[in-house]
Amino acid sequence: MAQPSTQKRPPFWRNQKYLNLIWQLLFLVFIIGTIIFLATNAMAGLNRAGLGLSFQFLTNRASFPIGETVVSFSPSDTFVRALYVGFLNTLKVSIVGIVLTTIVGVLVGISRLSSNWLLRTLSTWYIEIFRNTPVLVQIFFWYFAVMLAMPKIQDVNANYGFIISNRGFVFPWFDANSSLWIWIALLLVLLIAAFLTFKWKNKQQIEQGKKLYPSIWLVGVLLVGVTIGYLVLGEFPASLSLPEHTGTGSVGGYRFSPEFAAILFALVMYTATYIAEIVRGGILAVPKGQIEAAEALGLSSSKILRFVTFPQAIRTIIPPVTSQYLGLAKNSSLAVAVGYPDLFSVGSTTLNQTGRAIEVITIMLLAYLTISVVTSIIMNIYNKYTALVER
Fold first, then answer.
1. Which of 90, 229, 295, 317 is surrounded by the fewest CB atoms within 10 Å?
2. Which secondary structure element, helix H or strand E, spans residue 96, and what is its range?
3. Cα dist. 107→111, 112, 173, 269, 279 in Å?
4. What Rg, from alpha-carbon coordinates, does the chain have?
5. Structural domain range at position 188
6. Where would I find the ABC transmembrane type-1 domain in this sequence (predicted)?
7. Residue 61 in contact with residue 77, Cβ under 8 Å?
8. Residue 58 forms part of a structural domain
9. pLDDT per residue over 133-153, tens digit each?
10. Three-state secondary structure call for residue 251
């Protein structure tokens, strides 16, 4: 009969499990203590200056103009309205920049692997030049050497609906009609219906082995729905607005100011170089055997890229591309260098007028954190959607 073990457990101070827990608790206590110390020190400094910690200044009159806004703003509005306008301007740069950066980065990344020598060489030089120069220098280049060097607006005309001058780019845009929100609801319903129709026809195509053209069905549902909506409502959701030259300015269309154009072009051209290399690396990570098998089946290069290479590469591309999106959003704060009224610029003006450094900086930190967190959540959802399903 086996004798029961008489070996004693080691004391907790020699047990690795308890030691790891103790070290984590000590580190947590250190972090909390540091935060409390810094907060207490900051509050003491504010009290000595007779300020205290308060956000009531946000309801005071801002008394400064903002040159470029997404929503209406006047100097008589409050500081909270000014910060909101700055936040929208930052959001505008981030969203437009992310879209354009994705397009440029994917195209350049694919071009880097092209069999065309000229296209491959130009893509390589573009990456090497723009990736290895500071983004702030590029912002100054686009602003002073490109935008401000454009012809004066008095010397240009509206050609094909575009006006390009040292006051920025003006191009055709859309003005919302009264039925805009009805159209938005209708388009959402149409998109859902078109997607379901596409899935249904695609399933039938696989089951029957016949070509049923699901993409044509998708477009057809959208066209029929839009046609019925136009016949019922009598108008489209928006009407085209063409810019007109007035001699000293322009009316109509949509205007990209020199400041916005400079920060947008710089961030797009800079960030797209990293995305291009990420795309190239993702494509090269796809096993060559699958590409050779697709070629053996007679698929063209474009179809191999669309159906074989890119769907697999996207799984390795998304995580690093998310980091580049976050970097673009945070680098938009450099817009203050050329006078674009983003969140950092408006926040700095608010800080100078109110002296509320901690409050204003906290608001800016939370705003940038919100942009980053929301971007990460969206990209993580998309990453989960494209991930392989494990058995």
1. 295
2. helix 79-111
3. 6, 9, 26, 12, 9
4. 28
5. 175-235
6. 87-379
7. yes
8. no
9. 999 999 999 999 998 888 887
10. strand
